[in-house]
């Protein structure tokens, strides 16, 4: 299957935590209720994933943060659940599969997203 998009992002965990403390409404704006309960490093990685998928989709205007939710499979493996604006953009690009990898270590969270057609 052809690759139709790739995105990567990194987040400084402490700085992201400071942003969440400074602007408490940011947590609800960026994350779904189930995502919002995660620990800080996990939130930072999920934010990196949302930024990475936006890049993989060509960073179009109008994507809604809640339309790209990271859920964990029973094995612990992360995967995206796309809906609304994000699902529509992925479909318009012909993306059939979304691969995501998250990591956080040494104060940095990162994510890579690959879209396959």
UniProtKB/TrEMBL annotation:
Its cofactor is Mg(2+). The keyword Metal-binding applies. Coiled coil: none annotated. Its EC number is 2.7.8.7. Keywords: Cytoplasm, Fatty acid biosynthesis, Fatty acid metabolism, Lipid biosynthesis, Lipid metabolism, Magnesium, Metal-binding, Transferase. The keyword ATP-binding does not apply. It is an enzyme of class 2 (transferase). It comes from the Bacteria. One of its GO terms (molecular function) is magnesium ion binding. Transfers the 4'-phosphopantetheine moiety from coenzyme A to a Ser of acyl-carrier-protein. This is Holo-[acyl-carrier-protein] synthase. The gene is acpS.
């Amino acid at each position: 299957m052809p690759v139709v998009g790739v995105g990567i992002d990194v987040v400084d965990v402490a700085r992201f935590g400071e942003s969440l403390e400074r602007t408490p409404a940011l947590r609800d704006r960026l994350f779904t209720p189930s995502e919002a309960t995660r620990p800080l490093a996990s939130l930072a990685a999920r934010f990196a994933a949302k930024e990475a998928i936006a890049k993989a989709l060509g960073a179009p205007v109008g994507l809604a943060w809640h339309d790209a939710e990271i859920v964990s499979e029973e094995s612990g493996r992360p995967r995206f659940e796309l809906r609304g604006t994000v699902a529509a953009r992925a479909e318009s690009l012909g993306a059939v599969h979304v691969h995501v990898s998250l990591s956080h270590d040494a104060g940095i969270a990162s994510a890579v997203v690959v879209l396959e057609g």
